[in-house]
Design a protein that fits this description.
heterodimer, A: alpha/beta, eight-stranded mixed beta sheet, about 25% strand, B: about 350 residues, alpha/beta, six-stranded mixed beta sheet, 20 strands
């Protein structure tokens, strides 16, 4: 048993609780609340008046898969085909990549990572803790979604550079539909075979069965609507990734009933489809009760700056409470892991961050980061 | 002819916010006491306009690709000037105004070993000639990885640091002969080894050298440098030379008493993140007032325009920003931005400020 005390703990639960002691045992939280008598056998850790939040969660990043410095080993996009449903994050993540260390330095304890946006169908994403001795020990969800991309990126890579299909948004939509159409036509026996032997249509079948969502990269309003249209056609669960122009068609996004991960609006728009990017989207989605999380899209915004993405949303009118939730409990809820991570509550994983000041103050610096009750980062 | 009263105004000499009144007459700050109108700034913080000390704003337009990118020319020529490539209606100017940036020092892309004559411009979208505060300020270079990779990609020739140094020396010689007005040399460099070249050049040539980025300066013991245009640190690590990239750089420079100013190198980091860059410096223990000084008067002094702008002082151009809270609070918002006495941006329509 380890007992942390002398800090302001922010639970980030429904009641916005703050408390005085955090007890953990075997990597789990076993008590949160007012100071109480400490058992003799417990280790007591004094946090010297620091501020503690749950570990931060980034549910759209390419941590460990994107070659950030040595471009020749980029394992985030399988550029050979626009349709690569059998690519899997776990086959490209390098747990020794420095981006995991940067994540811990910024207080990020969980990431959803995997293929990028070059391909119409890119592959499967996974959800991982940012620390732990082996890849297997870090896995929270092995198959957390089928990642696809609409709009400029596949058009640019295949149409523009390779002079092949897809050159247009029409072909992109057709390639996306193709997987679902073929999967729908299979007999139950063939479906089981595809799933069992990891054949090409496996991810589509899993999405059709509701075992994981379709995660579509969509920036422009037309791409967002295409994503929604296709998801409705096949009656599958969709998660809108980026949703950059979502504030311009906010009623349609709301009506779709789907969730969104917004960002990376901390980037200068570098292409036409992101020119309407704004941090105000968070506030607008909040006002319309559209569930959302805030992302970095690491490495595009470095993962250690996830907190600053939430801060920027506050500058553009989002309340502090929702901003913090968008990188903790709301992010956890969107990936259906709120029973394990995202808040400091009894029974959850002991993932938390010790800050020098309240998280959104300019001076706030990560002093320590804990994953599963173990300290993996400490500031010099 | 407007008097602004009761605001907390940043005083560049004391580097603190003081409750003072100031007056704007036409384009300038004055103390004529002839104001016809009075505006109450009670509860607001007022700073001089922020200056981005290295930016490609207008030169590399945001939201589009090659069509709006005039930041890099492969074959170098001494006569290139950024003035000829600035598009005044780049959306980025509006964004910058909404974050309190009133002027930028325009420097070509890091891809250019030999760059161009730089310029300092106001963010007042009109014609570039009207926007210019100072043209032909300095000559820009980029050494190390970026310059090398540009040459390698084009298979121009295998270029080493030796080759870069040779080209730099030749070009500096030409500048000395053909551009007598240029005294400042701006050099983009990340690695310590490249900064060592600059140490040598400082001894060989009579120019005033300024490093842009300076990522590994903390590794160099004892070397002295003119004001460094440091950062940006809020950006991804693009290549191997930037592995040490960290906002700790600012406090390390301060500890070494090497003067520095902030930049975004927009669009590398967005110009809207200039204050954020200073916030990261504050997180790493740089005093807030020193960060604010570097964003305003310090930048103007580096750029040789301190007699025109960069402070709220009689006789200077009335470039100032009204904030709803301390500008280095992460959630501070710009209420209004004024350039040459004219309100170029306000948070809400109809706001009286």
């Amino acid at each position: 048993m380890i007992i942390f005390h002398n800090a302001k703990f922010v639970a980030v639960n429904e009641q916005n609780d703050t408390f005085e002691q955090l007890w953990i045992d075997d990597g789990r939280i076993v008590y949160t609340g007012p100071a109480k008598e400490i058992p003799d056998n417990a280790e007591k850790i004094d946090l010297h008046g620091a501020f503690v939040t749950p570990g931060l969660i980034d549910i759209h990043a390419h941590v460990g898969t994107w070659a950030e410095v040595t471009e020749d080993i980029n394992d985030a996009n399988e550029y050979s085909e626009p349709f690569t449903p059998l690519m899997h994050a776990l086959d490209s993540v390098d747990i020794r990549h420095f981006s995991f260390q940067h994540a811990l330095e910024g207080g990020v304890t969980t990431v959803q990572t995997g293929p990028g946006s070059a391909n119409v169908i890119g592959g499967i994403w996974s959800i991982l803790k940012t620390a732990g001795p082996t890849l297997a020990s870090r896995i929270l969800v092995e198959r957390s979604g089928l990642k696809g991309a609409l709009g400029e990126n596949p058009k640019n890579v295949f149409g523009n550079q390779y002079k092949r299909k897809p050159m247009t948004r029409m072909a992109i939509a057709q390639l996306l539909r193709d997987g679902f159409q073929r999967a729908t036509r299979l007999s139950e026996e063939e479906k089981s075979k595809h799933v069992k032997h990891n054949l090409e249509l496996r991810p589509f079948i899993e999405v059709l069965r509701g075992e994981m969502p379709l995660r579509l990269h969509c920036h422009r309003a037309d791409d967002i609507m295409t994503a929604i249209r296709i998801a409705k056609e096949f009656n599958v669960q969709l998660h809108l990734e980026h949703c950059t122009e979502g504030h311009m068609i906010v009623d349609a996004v709301k009506a779709s009933g789907f969730n969104a991960t917004v960002g990376p609006y901390m980037l200068t728009p570098s292409k036409y489809e992101t020119r309407n990017s704004t941090p105000a989207i968070a506030k607008i989605f909040k006002e319309h009760a559209i569930p959302f999380a805030i992302m970095t899209d690491h490495p595009f915004v470095p993962i250690q700056y996830l907190k600053y993405c939430a801060s920027e949303a506050i500058r553009y009118g989002l309340d502090e409470e929702t901003a913090l939730k968008s990188i903790t409990i709301h992010a956890a809820t969107l990936v259906q892991l709120d029973h394990r991570i995202g808040s400091l509550e009894i029974g959850k994983d002991a993932d938390f961050v010790v800050w020098s000041h309240p998280i959104f103050e300019t001076e706030a610096k990560v002093l320590q980061t804990y994953v599963n009750g173990k300290k993996y980062y400490e500031a010099e | 002819m407007t008097r602004y009263i009761n605001g907390l105004v940043f005083n560049s000499e004391t580097r603190s916010f003081e409750n003072t009144d100031f007056e704007v007459h036409g384009q300038y700050f004055t103390q004529l006491n002839t104001a016809e109108t009075e505006i109450n700034l009670h509860g607001y913080y007022i700073t001089p306009g922020f200056i981005d000390s290295c930016s490609q704003i207008g030169l590399a337009e945001i939201g589009i690709r090659w069509e709006g990118d005039d930041s890099f020319e492969f074959e170098s020529h001494l006569q290139y000037s950024v003035i000829d490539g600035i598009y005044p209606f780049d959306t980025a100017f509006k964004n910058a105004l909404s974050h309190g940036i009133t002027a930028s020092h325009i420097v070509p892309s890091p891809k250019s070993l030999v760059g161009a004559k730089t310029a300092i411009i106001h963010h007042t979208p009109s014609t570039v000639d009207e926007m210019v505060i100072k043209k032909d300020f300095g000559y820009s270079f980029s050494i190390g990885q970026n310059a090398k990779s540009t040459f390698f990609t084009a298979q121009k020739k295998p270029l080493t640091r030796m080759g870069i140094a040779k080209i730099m020396r030749e070009t500096l010689q030409q500048i000395q002969e053909q551009e007598p007005l240029i005294r400042k040399i701006l050099v983009r460099a990340h690695k310590a080894v490249d900064m060592e070249l600059i140490v040598r050049l400082q001894q060989e040539f009579p120019f005033e050298f300024h490093i842009i980025h300076g990522t590994e300066i903390p590794l160099l013991e004892g070397a002295s440098f003119n004001t460094v245009i440091a950062g940006p640190t809020f950006r991804y690590i693009e290549h191997n030379e930037m592995m040490a990239l960290s906002p700790k750089l600012y406090s390390q420079l301060a500890a070494r008493e090497i003067p520095f100013v902030f930049c975004t190198d927009h669009p590398v980091s967005s110009s809207t993140h200039l204050a954020l860059e200073a916030c990261l410096a504050v997180r790493e223990k740089l005093p807030r007032q020193d960060a604010l000084y570097a964003l305003t008067t310090g930048a103007a002094t580096l750029l040789g325009i301190e007699h025109l702008t960069g402070s709220i002082k009689d006789g200077l151009l009335a470039d100032f920003v009204v904030w709803n809270k301390h500008p280095l609070d992460l959630d501070a918002k710009v209420v209004a931005t004024f350039i040459k006495g004219k309100k170029e941006y306000s948070w809400e329509e109809g706001i009286t400020i």
